[in-house]
Specification:
about 190 residues; mainly alpha; about 0% strand
């Protein structure tokens, strides 16, 4: 069964990775970058501060914990445990894979840290704001960033899917922690008013 699922994952990867062009190479390279998204992150932090005022300190602190957890869990609990080679390190794919700027990434790719981190952020921020259109934009952003990893030859679709699931679960968990702390704070204020 695992071999069957792996064959589907590899086949889907090869199909998606072959859909490329020089223009899209540059676009996907940019989308997959980290520094390129700093303005978006600053904008989102600004929105959190605007909506939550002083409570934004806790909301942003929780988001920092979330991204740290997402990143570290995706590496130490998944990549280092499962040790599934990235497509770019799979000797069976070396002659057919489309790599951009000859970037191979680290040896292991299950699960995608990009997918885990972006879906964690999208989930958490969506829950903070509870606006349908805003959530749609955030999850679209997370999906495009995650897809760029397949395009660049660095992850299988399964790496992306399970990374996104990990991020989604962590986003919900940290949001619940944020809510719990806020409830306890409000109760404390009422008692001592």
């Amino acid at each position: 069964m695992l071999e069957f699922l792996n064959n589907i994952d590899v086949g889907l990867f090869v199909f998606l990775n072959k859909i490329n062009s020089p223009l899209w190479d540059q676009i996907m390279w940019w989308i997959s970058g980290k520094k390129e998204w700093v303005p978006l992150y600053l904008f989102l932090i600004g929105l959190i501060i605007y909506k939550y005022r002083w409570k934004a300190i806790l909301a942003i602190f929780c988001m920092a914990i979330l991204i740290t957890l997402s990143d570290q869990i995706s590496v130490h609990w998944f990549k280092n445990v499962f040790q599934r080679f990235r497509p770019s390190h799979n000797p069976d794919l070396k002659d057919i894979i489309h790599l951009v700027n000859n970037k191979h990434g680290g040896r292991f790719g299950f699960v995608s840290s990009h997918a885990a981190n972006t879906f964690a952020a999208a989930t958490y921020i969506s829950l903070l704001f509870k606006k349908k259109y805003f959530s749609w934009v955030l999850f679209s952003w997370a999906t495009v960033v995650s897809y760029s990893r397949i395009y660049l030859g660095l992850h299988y679709p399964g790496d992306i899917l399970f990374g996104a699931l990990l991020g989604y679960i962590l986003g919900i968990a940290i949001f619940r922690c944020f809510n719990f702390i806020m409830r306890k704070w409000d109760e404390y204020k009422l008692k001592n008013a």
